[in-house]
Amino acid sequence: MRITVDMNLCESHGQCVFAAPDLFSFDDEDYLAYDAAPADEARDRAEKAAAVCPVRAITVSAGAS
Hints:
The protein is of the alpha+beta class. Helix content is 23%, strand content 22%. It is built from two helices and four strands; from the N terminus they run βαββαβ. The protein has a two-stranded antiparallel ribbon with strand order 1-4. Strands 2-3 form a two-stranded antiparallel sheet.
């Protein structure tokens, strides 16, 4: 699985962090950090995070994990 975040769209609302804190977080400078290639077992959490993003900046696709 592959997670992609369009950082041009991301407005740092943090809904992804609440939905999947094991995959998304904010770094020390409040920039979004995320696991771009998590295990396939995390797909449900990744898709939930993508669904709650108010600007639809997150894409979850098939790919190497």
